[in-house]
Each structure stands twice: as C-alpha cells, then as structure tokens.
Hints:
Elements: H1 3-21, E1 30-34, H2 40-48, E2 53-56, H3 59-68, E3 75-78, H4 87-93, E4 96-100, H5 103-112, E5 120-125, H6 139-148, E6 155-161, H7 170-189, E7 196-198, H8 205-210, E8 215-218, H9 220-223
Parallel strand pairs: 1-2, 1-8, 2-3, 3-4, 4-5, 5-6, 6-7
Helix pairs in contact: 4-5
This protein binds pyridoxal-5'-phosphate (PLP).
Residues 34, 36, 57, 79, 163, 201-203, 217-221 line the site of pyridoxal-5'-phosphate.
Amino acid sequence: MSAIQSRLNAVRQRIRQAEQTYRREAGSVQLLAVSKTRPAEDIRQAVAAGQRCFGESYIQEALDKIGQLRDLGLEWHFIGRIQGNKTRAIAENFDWVHSIDTLRQIRRLNDQRPARLAPLKICLQIKIDDEESKSGISPGEVRGLIEAMPEYPRLALQGLMTLPAPAAQLDAQRLPFRRLRQLRDELATAGLPLTTLSMGMTDDLEAAIAEGATLVRIGTAIFGPRDYSGQT
Ligand SMILES: *Cc1c(COP(=O)(O)O)cnc(C)c1O
C-alpha cells in the first residue's frame, strides 16, 4: 500500500472515530481530499484507494490536473479565493465551489455555468470569527444572499463553509464551528434549510465533527506537508 493510501485510511479512521465519539450518524461526514499543490499522480493513488472528491485552490494548477484525470470521472471542488477573471474557468470545470463570498461571484458563476452541466453546487463562505483580513460573508448578510438564490437557477446552494483562525485546543477549535452550526440552525428556523456544513481540516477535524460538520476538507493528513515553491 502506498503512503497516500495508508494515510487516507488513517483519516477515514479518524472520521469514523469522531462520528462515534460525538454521536454522529456513521457515514454522515463526507471526506473531501484537498489535493492543491500535489501532482496528478498523488490523486491517482488516492483514487486507487476509493477517494472520488478532490479540492483545489489554484485555478491553473487545477485545470491541468482536471484535464489529466478526465478519464476517471472525479468530482472537483473549488475551495480557494475566487478572482473575478477566473469565474468562467470555475463555472466550466468544477462540480462544487465552497468559497463564495460576494453577490458578484454568484451572478458571474450563474451566468457562466454551461447549460449542458448540472447546476453548480455552492457553499457560502462565512466570516465566523470576524478576523479582519479573512474573506467571507458576515453572518448578518447571509440571509439576504440566500433569499436571492432563486434568481440564480444555474447554482444549487448546499450550505455554509468556514475557515477559522487556527487554535491549538479542542475547546477553542469548537467555538467557531459551533457558531456556524448555530447560524445554519437559525436559517433553518427562518425557513431557509441547508444541508452542508463544510468545516474542519487536518488539525481540527474532530472539533468540526463534534459541532456538526457534514464535509471535512483534508489535505496534509492525506498527502503530507505541502511544498508551495512551485506555486505562482
Ligand atoms: C488547504 C486547505 C484545506 C486543507 O488543509 P489541511 O490543513 O492541509 O488539511 C482545507 N480548506 C481550505 C479552504 C484550504 O485552503
């Protein structure tokens, strides 16, 4: 078994264990393998171990790999910062986008999603711990955006995503995730139910699962440490 395959199994085990510990239904947390900066060959190894969904953050690199792996029929999730001139490439090549934080991105992706493809699945990225520099929609603005979604039929809103500042302790890690879940619950009470909570990475996946994550985005624990030197 390759290193990637055995690490992938270890991550699956962590997820299963956390589901048990926090009384989540078995199989209720989906694993997105974050393959940014990793070569197509690494993705092939994860695919050989049964992984089908991959997350990418850099558009040019992602397009290269999507092209190389076209024959495998994988599901591609865009999780990086969305630059205005890159929305068409995203709309034409991805199945999901997790990192939407402006109405302008919503409009453009809706206009640019090809008719031959299913509606693009999206999550709204929420700025949950109001850190100044981070991207994301503030919780107070999210309701208006969701209510506008019927105007954008080429997009299918799935849920909320967050990327909190790193914290060392489990309790501190759980706090922003709990706030995202509470926001999801408030929206459901207001008649705006959403199924996906995209939260949790290598260092905080247990905290995210404890607070209700339905999808965790895991890179390092599967593929090893990233090397950004080749990244432009
Ligand atoms: C890189 C990245 C991840 C994966 O992080 P790891 O700590 O390597 O698991 C998850 N989500 C987003 C948005 C990322 O950019």
